[in-house]
């Protein structure tokens, strides 16, 4: 059976990592009646994710039936991959971990299964550097922001990615409610994130220098650009530990990044003030249900 035909027969999507992004992807990929395998080592994370998906569904106006969210421990990963045409890694933003996961997925997934990384700062080219994979042509990046509220997804391959798989992803993402964009060259931070990185870095630098407080900077940002949220509010939603990981990656890769934004973020992270998910970040949150 040719890979394209096998991929058509396989209907499920596997999502590795049931955190903030994983649960949102589980909702999106199950929104057209297809099952999603959600894999995570933490049972509480899986339970919270299923509850979050149910909440998204209750708030949705979608008329199509939803697929089943099937939760698994990592020991069941191989089995979950057998009927998956796509697997998306949503593990924490650490290169060594992502490389470990990518090698494992390449060894376990059927050869026609597309392997995608949802990394926000590491391109699949960076993740694959130094790895010996059986089928590197089926690996690509598929980065989302905050679905279902923000439906943009950026699809980016590497030098050896099969172009037909980019076309498959663009089509199927659109079918599942995403707004797909093709990043046509290897781009650190994709398209939006490289622009957003400059905005948040300057916001952090301005706050670290005492030019304005996070609240004041957010207020002027919203007032001028007429946006719903300012940069510090958005960083709180993403998670300040994640923001710090990304900023450190940019600094290591580029070499021209100032240290003050990282040092400023570190003060919050060291206190456990991670944003919405911890109840305290640049702002204080009393309702942790949305974390």
From TrEMBL:
Q: Where is this site: Important for catalytic activity?
A: 143
Q: Which residues form the 3-hydroxyacyl-CoA dehydrogenase C-terminal domain?
A: 189-285
* Cited InterPro entries: 3-OHacyl-CoA_DH, 3-OHacyl-CoA_DH_NAD-bd, 3HC_DH_C, 6-PGluconate_DH-like_C_sf, 6PGD_dom2, NAD(P)-bd_dom_sf
GO biological-process terms attached to the record: fatty acid metabolic process
**Native species of this protein?**
Purpureocillium takamizusanense
Give yes or no: UniProt keyword Oxidoreductase.
yes
* Family statement drawn from the similarity comment of this UniProt entry: Belongs to the 3-hydroxyacyl-CoA dehydrogenase family.
One Pfam family this sequence matches = 3HCDH
Q: Which Gene3D superfamilies match?
A: N-(1-d-carboxylethyl)-l-norvaline Dehydrogenase, domain 2, NAD(P)-binding Rossmann-like Domain
MF terms (GO), sorted A to Z: NAD+ binding; oxidoreductase activity, acting on the CH-OH group of donors, NAD or NADP as acceptor
* UniProt KW keywords: Oxidoreductase
Q: Which residues form the 3-hydroxyacyl-CoA dehydrogenase NAD binding domain?
A: 13-183
Q: What is the lineage of its organism?
A: Eukaryota, Fungi, Dikarya, Ascomycota, Pezizomycotina
Question: Could you tell me the superkingdom of the organism this chain comes from?
Answer: Eukaryota
Q: What is this protein called?
A: 3-hydroxyacyl-CoA dehydrogenase
């Amino acid at each position: 059976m040719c890979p394209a035909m096998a991929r058509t027969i396989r209907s499920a999507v596997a999502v590795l990592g049931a955190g903030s992004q994983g649960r949102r992807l589980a909702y999106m990929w199950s929104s057209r009646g297809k099952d999603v395998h959600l894999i995570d080592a933490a049972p509480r994370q899986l339970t919270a994710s299923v509850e979050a998906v149910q909440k998204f569904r209750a708030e949705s106006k979608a008329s199509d039936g939803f697929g089943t969210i099937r939760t698994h421990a990592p020991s069941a990963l191989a089995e979950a991959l057998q009927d998956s045409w796509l697997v998306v890694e949503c593990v924490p933003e650490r290169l060594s971990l992502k490389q470990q996961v990518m090698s494992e997925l390449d060894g376990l997934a059927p050869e026609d299964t597309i392997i995608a990384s949802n990394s926000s700062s590491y391109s699949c080219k960076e993740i694959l550097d130094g790895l010996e994979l059986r089928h590197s042509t089926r690996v690509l990046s598929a980065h989302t922001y905050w679905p279902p509220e923000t439906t943009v997804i950026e699809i980016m391959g590497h030098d050896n990615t099969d172009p037909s798989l980019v076309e498959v992803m663009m089509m199927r993402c659109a079918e599942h409610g995403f707004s797909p964009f093709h990043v046509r060259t290897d781009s650190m931070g994709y398209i939006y994130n490289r622009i957003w990185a400059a905005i948040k870095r300057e916001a952090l630098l301005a706050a670290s220098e005492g030019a304005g407080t996070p609240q004041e900077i957010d207020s002027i940002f919203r007032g001028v650009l007429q946006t719903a949220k300012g940069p510090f509010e958005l960083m709180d939603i993403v998670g300040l530990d994640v923001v710090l990981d990304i900023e450190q990656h940019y600094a290591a890769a580029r070499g021209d990044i100032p240290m003050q934004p990282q040092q400023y973020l570190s003060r919050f992270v060291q206190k456990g003030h991670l944003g919405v998910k911890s109840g305290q970040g640049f702002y204080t949150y009393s309702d942790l249900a949305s974390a």
